């Protein structure tokens, strides 16, 4: 009965921890992304686009910092398209049509790509949940053991008296060993 | 000479096999003779590898193009220093360096524990020798550095221009010293399982070996970042390149281990978890080599791709399967001696910190390998690069920063409400004040605000810890001022060395924040006499010149740099065209101050006669390099805590 209740409490604590962490991560990631693109577009709209793209030649650099010929050419293309009045979505769509999705520095969150977006956060939340569950169970078990069958009170952390008693017991044991 | 080199590697392979066989036989029968022979054989592996390195090194410096490796990686116009550094420019040489460091670790281990008669240490040596078998086999039978050319060329192909940088002389050896060093903790972990050992004494030894390798790997990673900053010429230092990620992953897991091992030492808990972390750290080190050498992923570091990938993959799968089977087989040995007392405690915070470190590693691993998986499943290519990692890894890293502040001020066993109140109010207030103070400087967005808050929080907790310690020393030992600080630090090097490392980490976070969020960029085609502005700086083109250097023609822009009217002289961003590779290389011009770097790149000379200049202002980037140095100092200080170990060694002997 106690064990079932303890397990239930551990799972409940873990669920709370997971929910809290999920909310925290959502609160972190979503506005950060919005801020990132807003700030980027305010400061330099071309950079807001090129910092999210990869140079399509074999250099593999993020386009905004690429200094190879292909990269410089593409940065010029983005500048020209912006001046012609095209927006970010239209420019990206044109580049994807020409080079494929490989030009995007981060894959679109659809289909199989969802795995790479969701799994790290899911793993973090799961890890926190498991850690909280173990911790809660350990703590409860420890309390049950500490109270003991005779109902004597005891806490997990040793009190000063208990620590002193432990040290005395150890010293006596060592003295006994020396005499033997 | 090449025959001697080949023979040395073959003898090394045989010695490694003999070492494993002999020690295994000695452990089974309890006879001392075979154990001693096995140890001696591991010494011989080191000697044979050193001989092979000397022979290849001599051939490289002498530019003996009858060696295929020399012809492929050096040329007559290469300086002797770079010629020697070509030892680790190609695949065979890199593997040879790997083996040299591996066998040197083995030899160092044997020397340090030469007075220990416990067969446990022989088992550790046996695991090291087992790994040496793999590398000596590869170098003897799969990719020998001593293959000869029937018709040697008059001149060699030369060294990759990217690698012709002074940092190249030390970056790979330091990085490898870190990577390979995790063999010793791994060997200890496996030996504990093989020998059915209990106790926590071995864990202190493992902690020290891990700390040593962790320091080198971390420093190597930062040197790599510095190399990318100077040599690649894109204004940044970390591109989440697959090989950068590969070096970061074992460092992250090693960091998790260095925290959780404290719980095992103090409370006898998390034993299975710690052994799993040791194994994972080592496997990720091998995985790093696999990524560099297999060519499965495109990387700026894939200098020498070949067909040894499957060998590495087989080794990783085989060794991790064996290690996992051993952990499961010895599960009872690894049971915790204690239970947690409270979730809100230092143990609890370390556990959550471990979850975050492993999650960060997982996210990096998944992002690095996902393009391969996606292509195999869907058939279409995708990229997973900096834009992805910045969105996924940064929030996890920031959570870690906050825990870096919280962990040390939580007490062991249980943190009571009064402890929480006493320890958290001041850092929280400091964090909020720092954030408010930063807002007028243009701080915006969730990540930057959390970074500033976290950094101030961590620094305040460190200062509080020092202040409390100094006060206690004044009360107890009547020490005063600086002496109290010295007393405090020398009496508990592990603890205060750890705080110094945390300060280094905070410096790196602030450096990354400054150089990414506040980075300014300008690019403009200039004619001679024209100027461009970036921030407070004015760059005026004085002209261009061209000069011939060994192996390359270098075109330089002569840029007069001034800030608010104060001239700093002429800088020379350049483009070098290497004759051998016909590869244009960017040579960055840097004007560095403590507060910011002015980073100038020559884009090229255009057809209309204008000169393309690209410039960046990277604020606070120097904090990244200084933060790394502070971390190294903190680690060395922590490692210098030998008193307790010596006492324990005496007891053991």
How are the SSEs ordered, and which strands pair?
The complex is a heterodimer of chains A (180) and B (653).
Chain A: H1 2-43, H2 45-50, H3 69-83, H4 88-99, H5 114-147, H6 160-179
Helix pairs in contact in A: 1-5
Chain B: H1 2-29, H2 32-61, H3 68-73, H4 80-85, H5 91-112, H6 119-142, H7 167-181, H8 183-195, H9 201-231, H10 242-267, H11 271-294, H12 309-329, H13 346-378, H14 386-409, H15 417-438, H16 446-477, H17 481-491, H18 493-517, E1 520-526, E2 531-534, E3 537-549, E4 552-563, E5 566-571, E6 574-578, E7 584-587, E8 589-592, E9 596-605, E10 611-619, H19 622-639, H20 643-652
Antiparallel strand pairs in B: 1-10, 2-3, 3-4, 4-5, 4-6, 6-7, 8-9, 9-10
Helix pairs in contact in B: 1-2, 1-6, 2-5, 2-6, 5-6, 5-7, 6-8, 7-9, 8-9, 8-11, 9-10, 9-19, 10-11, 10-13, 11-12, 13-14, 14-16, 15-16, 16-17, 16-18, 17-18, 18-19
Q: Gist?
A:
Chain A is mainly alpha-helical. Chain A has six helices and no strands. In chain A, helix 1 (2-43) runs antiparallel to helix 5 (114-147).
Can you put this structure into words, describing what you see?
With 180 residues, chain A is mainly α. Chain A has one domain (2-145). Chain A is 72% helix and 0% strand. Chain A is built from 6 helices and no strands. Chain A has helices at residues 2-43, 45-50, 69-83, 88-99, 114-147, 160-179. In chain A, helix 1 packs antiparallel against helix 5 (114-147). Chain B is of the alpha+beta class and 653 residues long. Helices cover 64% and strands 11% of the residues of chain B. In chain B, a hairpin with a 2-residue loop joins strand 2 (531-534) and strand 3. In chain B, 53% of the residues are buried. Classes of the chains: A mainly alpha (180), B alpha+beta (653).
Strand content of chain A: under 5%
Oligomer: heterodimer
Distance between the termini of chain B: 45 Å
Helix count, DSSP H or I runs of 4 or more residues of chain A:
6
Largest sheet of chain B: 6 strands, antiparallel
Count of distinct strands of chain B = 10
Tell me the strand percentage band of chain B.
Answer: 5-15%
The tally of domains of chain B stands at 3
The shape of chain B, in one word, is globular
What average pLDDT do the residues of chain A reach? 71
Please give the radius of gyration of chain A in angstroms: 30 Å
What is the distance, rounded to the nearest whole angstrom, between the alpha carbons of the first and last residues of chain A? 47 Å
Topology as H/E string of chain A?
HHHHHH
The succession of helices and strands of chain B, N to C, reads HHHHHHHHHHHHHHHHHHEEEEEEEEEEHH
Query: Which chains have the largest interface?
Result: A-B, 61 and 62 residues
Report the radius of gyration of chain B as a whole number of Å.
27 Å
Please tally the β strands of chain A and state the result: 0
Whole-number total of structural domains of chain A: 1
Mean pLDDT of chain B: 87
Question: What are the low-pLDDT stretches of chain A, counting only 5+ consecutive residues below 50?
Answer: 34-42, 147-160
Report helical residue fraction of chain B.
55-70%
